[in-house]
Amino acid sequence: MWTTTSSSTGAKQPTSTIIVGAGIIGAATALFLAREGVQVTLVDRDQAGRGASSRNAGYISMITRSGGPQLELAQLSRTLYSRLAEELNDFEFRANGALVYYYEEQLPLIEGFVERRQADGLPMEIVDGDRARELCPLLPEEVIGGIHSKSDCYLHPEKLVDALTAAAVKEGADVVRADVLDLVVEGGRCVGVRTPSGVRRADAVALTAGSWTAELLAKAGLPFHVLHMRMQMAETAPIEERLDTAAYGPSLFHEYAFVRELPGYDDDIVLHPLQHIMPEVGLLELICQRADGRLWLGCPIEFVDGPDASPNPTVAGMAQTFGVLGDHVPSLQHIPVERTWGGIAPQTGDGLPVLSDVAALPGLYVGSGHAYGATVGPGSARVLADLVLGRPQEIDIAAFRYDRPAITEGMARAVSLG
Ligand SMILES: Cc1cc2nc3c(=O)[nH]c(=O)nc-3n(C[C@H](O)[C@H](O)[C@H](O)COP(=O)(O)OP(=O)(O)OC[C@H]3O[C@@H](n4cnc5c(N)ncnc54)[C@H](O)[C@@H]3O)c2cc1C
Fold this sequence. Notes:
alpha+beta, FAD/NAD(P)-binding domain, D-Amino Acid Oxidase, Chain A, domain 2, 2 domains, eight-stranded mixed beta sheet, six-stranded mixed beta sheet, 12 helices, disordered N terminus, binds flavin-adenine dinucleotide
């Protein structure tokens, strides 16, 4: 089953790979492997992308990635996105940056935040209120400025997974609708997966089953500790104004540990009063616009017991979204809401995904634990594909190993969203 031809590291390259889970990570991995001539079977029990990957806000959020491995992975991904936008079917890729608008109260935090992020290598500048309103015409006069993060971008998540899957199929990948019941292990090696219609075999199995990864690993006796988040979105009717960038409001700052450690940070200057009433709901305060003029508003976050919790928006989640955004950006208040939805995404205790082989089970690779998988998806898929191919990596991937305590032993709670 193994070719004698080999990767540049001299390792044997698999001729066939089963990828379990056709979200952004699985679909992009399928594309990268199929391009290298690997016979890929991408298996999902649902339509491709209908897990978290088609439900997200589509923010390629560079500004919220903490320095180090997170940011390196996001930067790799960002480079790949520019290429994918040229190669794939249109997925509404908008590379105009993101704006974090702010009011007088947040001023003590802004300069320190921007200095820190520039030192991390992120291109950004502080703009005045008028420029902020040019980028996002919905903002009120009370907005005194904004941070324009130039490398951020956004896209249409469902179109992205559809485009990745279509490209993978064009390169020869098979997409199969089947529930993977468990991994098939023979002679201490993962040799395939079991589905209701029988066993499928391959040289390698890549597990990219998002929030459901832990269930499949547990059946093979492998621990995988993650928390589960219900994240929610709302869509309005189309509006005439055009937003040039994706926008974030100031409550965003509260969700990231590296921001909370900055001088000038204080919960009281970033949290809206409604957030004190519902402290168990986090809020990535965001507004972006689709090509058809509709606004997407989000994104409240609640921790739930497991991946099969209802993904549907909650009263608290929507109350916070509409309450905080409606107060910060009053021009939103009377735009009709046409649709709401939610999804479940995993969060590891150290905020990093797992992109790794598994020493205890050769033949198995894991690409999971993504809380911000739209941002790092192509980068994670590149790493995973290169692991399967036995090729040298473009970035240091030591921090993403499966066998780290945050994954195998778990942590009481996640340190930060990012
Ligand atoms: C509302 C919301 C907003 C978000 N906003 C952003 C954002 O703006 N930016 C960002 O970077 N991230 C965002 N995220 C997070 C992002 O969506 C996820 O990190 C990402 O989609 C994870 O991708 P994935 O491929 O790992 O998992 P998923 O997309 O969940 O894919 C897993 C797939 O595995 C399949 N599967 C599971 N078990 C099995 C099995 N046993 N057999 C067969 N198939 C199986 C599922 O059907 C599913 O299709 C958001 C998430 C949500 C819910």
